[in-house]
Every structure is written in C-alpha cells, then in structure tokens.
Amino acid sequence: MKIQITPLAERKLKERLGDQPGLFKLFYDTEGCGCDGINVLLIVSEAQSGDVSIDAHELPFIISRQQEIFYEEQMRLDAEERFSSFKLDSHSQIYGKNILVRDLRNTEVPQPGAGIACEVTPR
C-alpha cells in the first residue's frame, strides 16, 4: 500500500508529530460512531502486532493488516492551509474530506480500539 502525500500535508503532519517519536496509523473506525464508519489518522507510540507499514515517502505510516481491505493500493493525502483536517482519496473514490488527526501518545486511551476515533471526550 502506498500513500502519496502532498507537500502541504507532509508539513502539517510533521508539525503534529513534533519532536516526539510516533507513527501515523490509518484507522477506519466502524463502531460507536453512529454511522458506517469514519477514517482517522491516529498518532501512536508504537506499532501493534498485526500492523504493517505503508509507503508514505518520509513519514512513518502503518495500518492494521485487518483494515487494509477498506483501502486501495494507491491513495493521496492532501490538506488545506486554513484547516486542521486532511483529505484522503484515490483514483476511484474519496475516503474523506475531513479526516482528523488524533494523538494517542502520552494518553491512557488504549490504541486503537472500537469507537475511540470518534469518541467525544470532555474538556
């Protein structure tokens, strides 16, 4: 699997990663969302068993082997300067125009589990 990342999206993702180690995990959350599912980019501290690498140029991307079926082999990730969300698409479909990044590093939230990507947490 390969994700072509635009220069703007790469810059914004690197800003989100900061100077802490971490991996971007492409995750399709299908439970607890009240919909068919949503795509999200999780920042995790380490890969879990069953995770595989995604070729994303210089950025560290992974996906669960079980979730590879939801995505095509070649995709593109883009961003807009004024928004914090991302757009993931391929030649044949748009996976999402409002894909958010959720940083799970340094949290007690188990990574990733059912419903965590769209769970609303109190401030």
UniProtKB/TrEMBL annotation:
- The Core domain, residue ranges: 1-101
Q: Which InterPro entries match?
A: ATAP_core_dom, HesB-like_dom_sf
Organism domain of life: Bacteria
Q: What is this protein called?
A: Core domain-containing protein
Phylogenetic classification of the source organism: Bacteria, Bacillati, Bacillota, Bacilli, Bacillales
